[in-house]
Amino acid sequence: MPDSRLQRFIRILHTIEDSLLVIILLSMVLLAFSQIVMRNFFGTGTIWLDPLLRVLVLWVGLLGALVATRQDKQISVDVLTRMLPPGLKRLSKIITRTFAAIVSGIIAWHSFKFIIDEWHSGVTAFASVPAWLPESILPFGFAIIALRYTFQAITLALHGNNADVNGGSTQ
What we know:
The protein is an all-alpha fold. The protein has one domain (about 1-160). Helices cover about 75% and strands about 5% of the residues. The protein contains six helices and two strands, in the order H-H-H-H-E-E-H-H. The chain has helices at about 1-40, 50-70, 80-85, 85-120, 130-135, 135-160; strands at about 125, 130. A two-stranded antiparallel ribbon has the order 1-2. Helix 4 packs antiparallel against helix 6. The longest helix has about 40 residues, at about 1-40. It is elongated and about 65 Å long. The two termini are about 20 Å apart.
């Protein structure tokens, strides 16, 4: 019973990630198009729209990284790992995922400290939105990535190459 609840929770999280990614990407296209139309045909534009679009690029990048990590589709150079025997290939995957988890955790920690500094500084990102608010995707995103790499490394260590490192779902 708890397993099915956990799987349902994970599916909901995946759906939220995917939906946010689509909504933000679609919003970016529509907002950029409207800004171009306003500038070229009406000689005007919204002053805070360009900074908003830059923030949305950050969000799309990190949400895309979350999805890539979830689906085990991150960019990798696997020329050498293709030639390794299965045991060493598994060890290589465990080492690389552990290293990626550590690096992602360090980035999450330092980006959290950065968000605290931004909060204290009172800087705004666009309009009247404080900079720390849209930048909060940094520690959150990298913390999730670190957790996913950690779970992938543990799953590979316990269950081998045939393990489902995607948490049972790529949706």
